[in-house]
Amino acid sequence: MLTLTRDTKRLTIVVIYLLAFFVIGAGLYLAFKPKPTCFDGQQNQNEEGVDCGGICAMACIETIVGNDPLVREITFIPADRGRYDIVARIFNPNNDIGASSFRYALLLSDASGRELSRTTGTSFILPQETKMLLAFNLEPDQIPAKAVVELSDFQWTRLRDYRAKPELNIYSKRYVERPDQSVFGAMTGILVNESLYDFRKIRIKVVLRDAAGTPLAANQSEMQTVTVGREQDVRIVFPQPFSGAVAQVDAEVEADVYDAENFLQQYQIPKETGRSGFDYGGPGL
User: Fold this and answer.
1) Longest dimension (CA), the chain
2) pLDDT at residue 194 in the model
3) How many Å apart are CA 69 and CA 102, to the nearest integer?
4) How far apart are CA 108 and CA 129, in angstroms?
5) Which domain holds residue 55?
6) Which region among 16-30, 100-114, 231-245 has the lowest average model confidence (pLDDT)?
7) What DSSP string runs through 80-132?
8) What is the pLDDT of residues 176-223, one digit of tens each?
9) pTM value?
10) Residues 77, 108: one domain?
11) How many domains is the chain built from?
12) DSSP character for 51?
């Protein structure tokens, strides 16, 4: 017959009491456990987030964080009478995330990094877009050594059913020196809106480059009421002389698709035309 020692008996009794306490405690917890609700600060039931989505009336707000744009170019150009222009190009590496708004600063500094002059602005950028940022007539107190671009405050937005950026193209681009007595030169071309939308306003940015791609001069202008399919003459003037021979005309056309008021009318293009479109238009973003 098996005989338990005194220590073994004590251990057995302790284990039995602990098991009993656990069973009673678990029973009381299950009996008085509050039912999950949409206000308990926890993600339960079939909620898609904490107290949102699923059976909860409040929709979940997606937190969208995009990868920072890459700086592809930043340089300055001598302008007139000690003034300088800045040319920057940034690239958004995100596939379906754009920024409806962001802040930028373009500045000039000396060799030690001391800031000499700056200008600021706001812009937007689409997924996979390369965007040009320009600044004009900065007046530092000495000859600058370099230009710097600073980017901040990105309002990231996921574009639903995103296909392509607006098809705003300039054909027959050319630079003409001294087209008349009033200006040093001008870029001319034909703008065609090959998108599915009439736009209220667009901005055209132009950088003239030499054979090596170095910027020689820059300017920009706006056009109003750009309708689908219509050919419109473009003329961007360069009033002040600059040095170097123009070999390339770099032109960028942008339309703010995040601004619902910038859309005047949408058109449906039949599929057999083969023209690609995009799903923009304020509420569709």
Assistant:
1) 123
2) 93
3) 11
4) 25
5) 37-65
6) 16-30
7) STT-EEEEEEEE---SSEEEEEEEEEEEEE-TT--EEEEEEEEEEE-TT-EEE
8) 999 888 899 999 999 999 998 899 999 999 999 999 999 999 999 999
9) 0.75
10) yes
11) 3
12) T
